[in-house]
Specification:
The chain is an alpha/beta fold and 251 residues long. It has one domain: 3-Layer(aba) Sandwich (Rossmann fold), CATH 3.40.50. Helix content is 39%, strand content 18%. The protein is built from ten helices and eight strands. An eight-stranded mixed beta sheet has the order 3-4-2-5-1-6-7-8, with helices on both faces. Strand 6, helix 6 and strand 7 form a beta-alpha-beta unit. Helix 1 packs across helix 10. The chain is globular, with a radius of gyration of 17 Å. The two termini are 14 Å apart. It binds adenosine-5'-triphosphate and magnesium ion. Magnesium ion binds next to helix 1.
């Protein structure tokens, strides 16, 4: 099944939030096995999915031994299997990056094999902007899911995303977008969102409102849907999940 890659040239827009919450929403379909993989040395994805802070093991600590990665995979209450990056100091994560530059297959091959299982959907969270990990998996990604905010910085980056310059060559066939942290009460938000939406067309899977329940859910280490099922953001994310499944031909 598809390898879905949550990306953005912009930091802090909500990549990890979207990757985690979409993984949880997708896992509510009992016929799917959902694996959420964290390629960001910040190692935050696990926290969105309820893995305790003190659990710091991850696949990057055993990059050469993919047959052991299952040992660090964590099954969440939502039924997602999270593969954390693992806690590392800066030197170690820079070394991982350098190794992936030299040998991208160390990462790409295990993820490709995982996604080749017809019952498994793999959703990957990435660090902002270019990275060796993103470059390694891009040729194998089936869906590139770019998260942007409805702000001037995101709008300014859109041309580079559209042209492929932001991600380099080897773009997968399917590129979709999410506009996150949309606030209809601001002067600029709706104007920028309208302009981005017009440029994205049907590739826009949806907008997620800025919603206090989202950071609260992270603090509570739950998905937004579990923490606040009636929240606007829960509604928005459920809609995006439905559209994503339709785009993947699953509905
Ligand atoms: N729709 C939203 N409404 C309110 N807060 C949000 C929303 N989406 C994300 N946030 C908050 O914004 C912060 C950044 O989100 P997140 O960590 O998911 O961004 P990111 O793109 O993964 O960041 P980074 O580039 O550092 O990896 C978090 O505190 C998160 O709870
Ligand atoms: Mg992140």
């Amino acid at each position: 099944m598809p390898l879905i890659c949550c990306v953005s040239p912009k930091g802090g827009v909500g990549k990890s939030t979207m990757a985690a919450n979409l993984a949880s929403a997708l896992a509510s379909d009992a016929t799917l096995r959902v694996v959420a993989v964290d390629l960001d040395p910040q190692n935050m994805l696990r926290l969105h999915l309820g893995v305790p802070l003190h659990q710091v093991r991850g696949f990057a600590q055993m990059l050469d031994q993919p047959h052991l990665w299952h040992q660090v995979g964590q099954r969440t209450v939502d039924g997602v299997t999270v593969l954390p990056y693992g806690a590392m100091d800066m030197g170690a994560s820079v070394n991982i990056s350098a190794r992936l530059e030299q040998a991208p297959a160390l990462l790409a091959e295990p993820l490709r094999i995982l996604a080749a299982d017809p019952a498994t959907m793999v959703i990957v969270d990435t660090e902002p902007g270019p990275s060796a990990a993103l470059r390694a998996i891009l040729p194998h990604a089936d869906v590139l899911l770019t998260v942007l905010a409805a702000d001037a910085a995101s709008a300014a980056l859109f041309a580079d995303i559209e042209s492929g310059r932001a991600y380099g060559h080897g773009l997968p066939a399917a590129q979709y977008f999410i506009i996150n942290q949309f606030d209809p009460m601001t002067r600029l938000g709706p104007r920028i969102a309208r302009s981005l939406a017009a440029q994205m067309g049907p590739r826009l899977l949806g907008m997620v409102h800025r919603d206090e329940y989202v950071p609260e859910a992270l603090a509570a280490q739950q998905s937004v849907a579990a923490y606040a099922p009636r929240a606007q953001a829960s509604h928005d994310i459920a809609g995006i999940c439905r559209k994503l499944l339709m785009a993947l031909g699953r509905r």
